[in-house]
Amino acid sequence: MTLLGHDEAWREWREAMAGSRMHHAWLLAGRRGVGKASFALAAARELVGAAPGQDHHPDIIVLTHGPKDDKEERKRADGKPFELARSIRIAQVRSMQQRLTTRPTVGSRRAIIIDPADDLERNAANALLKSLEEPPVGTFFLLVAHSPARLLPTIRSRCRVLRFPTVSDAEMDRLLAELAPLANAATRTAAIAAAAGSPGAARDFVELELGEVAELMGRILSEGDRDFALRGRLAGAIGARPDRERLQAVLDLARAELVRRLDGTEADPRPAIDAHAELVRLTGEQPTYNFDAGLLAMEIGTLLANAAKASERADG
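^ thats the sequence. predicted structure below, dont judge the formating
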């Protein structure tokens, strides 16, 4: 995917690479879906001098969510779908640190990508801090963070921050026209509104055909759902067996719809804020919990309907 809004980040990164004392730890901060992980991998490849077309490089180490347990690890080894752990664990950090006791394999530099650093468990974060405090020569850390405030202050203080802004509606429309030429203008407009400046979220909206889901969420927020009919239709639009990617996109969309509702009403915002907080919790659990799709759809619909009821009382 074409990456938008990265010009300033590339300028800072390449200017640092050209200098004599490049900072050893970088915090890549911005909304989910703006391309931070893609930037981290591309920057790491430049750093270690990876050859064009080289898929894997021995001096680029990526820490991310691994299998939840030994059973899920065996599934991964067999090439089967597996359930992810909720966090990046201390064992992964320890394993990475063992690698740091040796010199880089090919050149003089090594890159460690942690994606997302927000999800380091507490012990893993404390272990990482030791490496940030005493970094081996030639080792550089790139920490991808959707919510930097969740990181230990001591980790943030040791990182140089690269900020990744959201993208303008006009740029998003041009990108969607390129990536999804068959999507009509109404679908692109809905995708841009739901994505709130995140190209990845807008692309998912179109590719996952979330137009009907967005329309039903909007109706629940506007009309309420006293007889549960709209919630039933919402569950059908989400699907009986959606994959994790679709569920993630649905939860992102629900939060975006709530924010738009808050922006467009003078009603008491507290129920919508409470609903948004609950959706944030569900979004955090979704990658690692085995949700029943129908029950999750009803829970999302109920949160939206409760926000709608509060608006009805305030408006009426």
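The first helix runs from residue 7 to 18.
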